[in-house]
Amino acid sequence: MRTTIFVPGDAAALALGADAVATAISEEAARRGIAIKLVRNGSRGMVWLEPLVEVATPRGRIAYGPVAPAEVPGLFAAGFLTGGVHALCLGPTEEIPWLARQQRLVCRRVGVVDPRSLADYVARGGGEGLRRARAMAPAEIVRAVTESGLRGRGGAAFPAGIKWQTVRATAAPQKYVVCNADEGDSGTFSDRMLMEGDPYCLLEGMAIAGLAVGAAQGYIYVRSEYPHAVAALEAALAGAGDFLGNFTIEVRVGAGSYVCGEETALLESIEGKRGIVRAKPPLPAVAGLFGQPTLINNLITFASVPDILAQGAAAYRDLGCGRSRGTLPFQLAGNIKHGGLVEVPFGLSLRELLYDFGGGSRSGRPLRAVQVGGPLGAYLPEAQFDTLLDYEAFAAIGAGLGHGGIVAFDDTVDLAGQARYAMKFCAIESCGKCTPCRIGSTRGVEVIDRIRAGDGRQIALLEELCETMTQGSLCAMGSMTPIPVLSALRHFAEDFGGKCE
């Protein structure tokens, strides 16, 4: 009987040498005349332990890591195929404290299943939500999503059920379902991890959405920087058979423009046009892709739906706090000791996430600031680390959870430099359609440079410029760029040369 060994094919694991480890395991097994089955699973999200090798044993899956190719012969000699003791042995994977403390719903199969095996997906509970949805009327599906309290996971946190109902109720000969998997925010990788580790979950969620709104065609928009995710999606679609019924999905690869994460610019790109923002109204739910009603959601939103249909809206709604229901895969990056993906219900504090899961800074120095919600998110000082991970709690302090990306900085960070980076990022990534974003960001870099050179009189001008960008920009690209700038001014005035009024 062959022993099954799991070596992640996730992009992060590959960057840390997973392919070389997989090759070393295959060659060592062949040298010893041992038959093995090597599965390239997704990453469990414990990036500091990659490459993480797991072995299926009668006691469950036993983890070893981080494994280097040179350590593979020693693992075989220690009997790791039967869970043998070794310095790299971490014990049963599910009992690793970092994983055991999580409550994974969306990512429950990421790192567990063979991402290219539909049979494995179904054997681990996949497909149940779609099966139940097929026995329901479209209005019932929408009602379940609404009652679950699911909100868009792309950053806006708009109630998903309202958007679904709008598309369902809009009469049209053709409707579309579009998944926004562009994931351009710095410090975010949950979309990529799910596409590479459990692609059928996304496909199932989109098929359920198609049933709910009356659409038979779906598109997944993925950035070109995610070649492994694109390959995983294409492989899953090729192996889907009749799993999706008459719902067809096509993968579209974008050229890497950050603004194409905005839903209307994304639709323009899918249509083969330059990715620039459309004026609204009309909303995409009424006139979206090719002018037809279009349901466009973030990947994590769609991936949350199968569990809601399978377990019931109440089970999902019972998790979380306030109006933030369910779970969110948070992504820890930057100067953090234990970076990776942490999926927990809303309601944990930012401090618990940074220290109980993240382990504090990687440098060992005090954490001074964290940016939550991507490059356009607020910089939060240590005094706000006790804020609960909740949409309304973050809004109350002038911040947002965004896509759940968290980038940590220790006490050596220059927040004036980070504010400049935000303005420069906007200047580079702006689609150029509106003046406040296109010109305002360029002028913003110049003003910040003058402030950093010692001209404190420019601070008032910077604040006025930020107000113009906030109120006058066509989309969130320009209107949100002032958020990191003003938060840095507010909380870290000393980095700008003095107290900011």
Using brief descriptors, characterize the structure shown.
five-stranded mixed sheet; Ubiquitin-like (UB roll); Glutaredoxin; 16 strands; globular; 501 residues; alpha/beta
Task: Explain the overall architecture.
- With 501 residues, this protein is α/β, with parallel strands linked by helices.
- Helices cover 40% and strands 16% of the residues.
- It folds into four domains: 3-100, Glutaredoxin; 118-317, Rossmann fold; 320-410, Ubiquitin-like (UB roll) (Roll), CATH 3.10.20.600; 415-496, NADH-ubiquinone oxidoreductase 51kDa subunit, iron-sulphur binding domain (de novo design (two linked rop proteins), Up-down Bundle), CATH 1.20.1440.230.
- The protein has helices at 11-15, 18-32, 72-77, 97-100, 118-123, 128-134, 138-148, 160-169, 190-197, 199-213, 227-238, 263-270, 299-311, 313-317, 350-357, 391-396, 415-429, 435-452, 458-472, 476-480, 482-491, and strands at residues 3-6, 36-39, 53-57, 60-64, 89-92, 176-181, 217-223, 248-254, 294-298, 320-321, 324-325, 327-334, 340-345, 367-372, 379-381, 405-410.
- The strands form four sheets. The protein has a five-stranded mixed beta sheet, with helices on one face. The chain has a five-stranded mixed beta sheet with strand order 13-12-16-14-15. The chain has a four-stranded parallel beta sheet with strand order 8-7-6-9, sandwiched between helices.
- The mean pLDDT is 95.
